[in-house]
Amino acid sequence: MSTVQPTRPDNRVTTAARDSTSRWRTMLPPAAVLGTLAVATIALHVRDPHEQGSWGECPTKAFFGLDCPGCGGLRAVNDLTNLRIIDAASSNLLFVATLPVIAYVFGRWSLGCWRGQAWTPSERASTWSALTLVAAFLVFAVLRNVPAGSWLAP
């Protein structure tokens, strides 16, 4: 069984008909990521991570007694869903500060999928971004576990 595709007066299949099917296929990965994030965000809004033990305990905190760079991230998401931005920053400043960057990267990726043109940052940009992110995580992890940076602890 074949599907009939719209044709132009010169009997060529329209690009729009072909592109609409492939566009939806290329948008599946961003849609899946966005859907997963939405479900996780709703779960964190409904089940408050501020309540002791509601989501378990961070393994780094449990085994080593240290706050990892992610500690407070669940509470920060809950605070953001309740529009408490200052509380979210108090829970995990690094997470809140990186949200605009995460939104930008997701937006560029999604737009590239929509247009059918993959967004591929240069190797140099990718390397520097990764190194900067790792350095920020390390500095943040150290600072929030020393007395001078105790205000960064969740």
From TrEMBL:
<keyword id="KW-0472">Membrane</keyword>
<feature type="compositionally biased region" description="Polar residues">
    <location>
        <begin position="1"/>
        <end position="19"/>
    </location>
</feature>
<feature type="transmembrane region" description="Helical">
    <location>
        <begin position="88"/>
        <end position="107"/>
    </location>
</feature>
<feature type="transmembrane region" description="Helical">
    <location>
        <begin position="27"/>
        <end position="46"/>
    </location>
</feature>
<dbReference type="Pfam" id="PF10825">
    <property type="entry name" value="DUF2752"/>
</dbReference>
<protein>
    <submittedName>
        <fullName>DUF2752 domain-containing protein</fullName>
    </submittedName>
</protein>
<keyword id="KW-1133">Transmembrane helix</keyword>
<keyword id="KW-0812">Transmembrane</keyword>
<dbReference type="InterPro" id="IPR021215">
    <property type="entry name" value="DUF2752"/>
</dbReference>
<feature type="transmembrane region" description="Helical">
    <location>
        <begin position="128"/>
        <end position="146"/>
    </location>
</feature>
<feature type="region of interest" description="Disordered">
    <location>
        <begin position="1"/>
        <end position="21"/>
    </location>
</feature>
